[in-house]
């Protein structure tokens, strides 16, 4: 059941409201909601440091990562770089799928790389647990860059500055490196570069701060952000998953997005491969393979529940969302208006996706005004262009 609706009814009863049909609700925001609003704005200027990547924050690693990210010579076909699928203002493509080697299409919609280093998990199903190990997947993926360690080594060896920089950072020439160490290290410099792809400070942040001041002065309803924020928190329940300054809970949910592809199992199918992966954060390629990381991964194995993980995908950040159409892991929704209609209907029809929809996915009965206010709110989340 909708906890907010439930609470409004309980409150109406507690206040001795006579009619059951009484639609009166408490003024927005209440104290809990004010706290939620306070947690939404001002994403930190620097993404958190990744202790498992010793290249993180090193200018020299960022520079090498930058050129490698844009180098199609790392693909077997010679025509596809990371930037082929993560380009333009949104660092993604404007189509549902992206083109890899030999015209193959990616299995899913490429997420934006803006603010990617704030993420806790990578890929829609969470099958990578660090930004550096994520990079190995597109390099090896036959429908993306279709490379292997030999292709990558040949490229690093053929460009003199690559060899020099690699040697300076890792103390070994690419030619003398083992296959797996080479791939992990290339991932680490690419992650160092991607950590700089930050785009924050959106009109949204200013609006939320101003709205909080207005609410504290009892003037919430007069504020232009009132209806959008109220719908985001109350009737839309978006805040249940899109919370905190990155507007994500860093978790996985089945919200009922139509998908009959082989990857439709979502996080449930991705978990065991991640836990057994030779490149995960607890592996020998991690620069901080502490017991804590291994224990945490093992706990996931024992506590994983197919009832919640099957068909579950990662809650994406909503920052810069207006730059990254189309939407969802399938790219099925072309516009933000379509996304709102999807939520308003309570997700796609049961049977069109794997697993069970989470209980909060119910028809929302939004008015046209509320829908428009939500779209305007989402559009306000685009960050200022970085200097
Ligand atoms: C052919 C297109 C293509 C290429 C080339 C490509 N990617 Fe991607 N990228 C994708 C797709 C599609 C996804 C989502 C895959 C999934 O979730 O199953 C993705 C996901 C990601 C993610 C996860 C983002 C998130 O929010 O979870 C990162 C990081 C990333 N790519 C970086 C890279 C890097 C680095 C390279 C080069 C080594 C690269 N990509 C090459 C298409 C591509
Ligand atoms: C139960 C958790 C949950 C709730 C509630 C929720 N979302 Fe989401 N949201 C997700 C997940 C998970 C995805 C990705 C799903 C997928 O691709 O399969 C997503 C995707 C999106 C996207 C697409 C982003 C992109 O980059 O493709 C938008 C926009 C969005 N949500 C907005 C909203 C709005 C607006 C609301 C409230 C009306 C809302 N969400 C409520 C979890 C949630």
In the residues, how many domains can be counted?
Answer: 2
Given helix and strand content, the structural type is mainly alpha
Question: How is the main sheet built?
Answer: 2 strands, antiparallel
Mean pLDDT: 93
Number of strands: 2
SSE pattern? HHHHHHHHHHHEHHHEHH
* Small molecules in complex: heme C
What share of residues is helical? 25-40%
- CATH structural fold name of the largest domain: Cytochrome Bc1 Complex, Chain D, domain 2
Strand coverage percent: under 5%
CATH class of the largest domain: Mainly Alpha
Q: Which second-level CATH architecture of the largest domain applies?
A: Orthogonal Bundle
The whole-angstrom Rg is 23 Å
Supply the number of helical segments.
Answer: 16
Protein name: Di-haem cytochrome-c peroxidase
Subcellular location: Periplasm
Pfam families: CCP_MauG (PF03150)
Binding site for heme c 1: 82, 85-86
Molecular structure report:
The chain is mainly alpha-helical and 387 residues long. The chain has two domains: 3-38 and 200-261 and 311-379, Orthogonal Bundle (Cytochrome Bc1 Complex, Chain D, domain 2); 59-194, Cytochrome Bc1 Complex, Chain D, domain 2 (Orthogonal Bundle). It has 16 helices and two strands. Helix 3 (59-69) packs across helix 9 (179-194) and helix 15 crosses helix 16. The chain is globular. The model is unreliable at 1-22 (pLDDT under 50). One heme C (HEC) binds at residues 69, 80, 82, 84-86, 98, 100, 106-108, 110-111, 113, 116, 119, 122-124, 131, 134-135, 138-139, 144-145, 190.
């Amino acid at each position: 059941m909708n906890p907010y609706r439930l609470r409004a009814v309980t409150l109406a009863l507690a206040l001795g409201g006579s009619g059951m049909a009484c639609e009166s609700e408490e003024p927005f925001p209440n104290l809990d909601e004010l706290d939620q609003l306070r947690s939404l704005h001002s994403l930190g200027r620097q993404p958190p440091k990744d202790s498992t990547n010793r290249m993180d924050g090193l200018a020299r690693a960022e520079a090498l990562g930058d050129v490698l990210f844009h180098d199609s010579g790392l693909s077997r076909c010679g025509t596809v770089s990371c930037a082929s699928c993560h380009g333009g203002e949104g660092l993604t493509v404007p189509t549902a799928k992206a083109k890899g080697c030999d015209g193959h299409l990616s299995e899913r919609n490429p997420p934006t790389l803006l603010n990617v280093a704030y993420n806790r998990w990578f890929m829609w199903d969470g099958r990578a647990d660090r930004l550096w190990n994520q990079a190995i997947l597109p390099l090896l993926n036959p429908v993306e860059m279709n490379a292997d360690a030999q292709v990558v080594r040949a490229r690093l060896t053929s460009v003199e500055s690559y060899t020099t920089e690699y040697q300076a950072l890792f103390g070994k020439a690419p030619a003398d490196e083992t296959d797996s160490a080479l791939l992990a290290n290339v991932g680490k410099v690419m992650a160092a570069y991607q950590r700089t792809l930050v785009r924050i400070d959106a009109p949204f942040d200013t609006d939320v701060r101003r709205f909080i001041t207005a609410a504290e002065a009892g003037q919430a309803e007069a504020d232009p952000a009132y209806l959008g924020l109220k719908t985001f928190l109350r009737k839309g329940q978006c805040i249940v998953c899109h919370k905190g300054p990155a507007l994500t809970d860093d978790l996985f949910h089945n919200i009922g997005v139509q998908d009959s592809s082989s990857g439709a199992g979502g996080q449930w199918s991705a978990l065991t491969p991640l836990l057994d992966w030779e490149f995960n954060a607890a592996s020998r390629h991690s620069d901080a393979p502490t017991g804590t990381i291994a224990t945490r991964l093992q706990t996931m194995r024992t506590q994983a529940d197919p009832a919640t993980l099957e068909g579950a995908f990662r809650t994406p950040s909503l920052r810069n969302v207006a730059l990254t159409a189309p939407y969802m892991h399938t790219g099925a929704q072309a516009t933000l208006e379509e996304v709102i209609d999807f939520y308003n209907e309570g997700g796609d029809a049961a049977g069109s996706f794997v697993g069970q929809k989470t209980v909060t996915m119910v028809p929302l009965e939004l008015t046209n005004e509320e829908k428009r206010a939500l779209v305007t709110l989402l559009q306000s989340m685009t960050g200022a262009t970085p200097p």
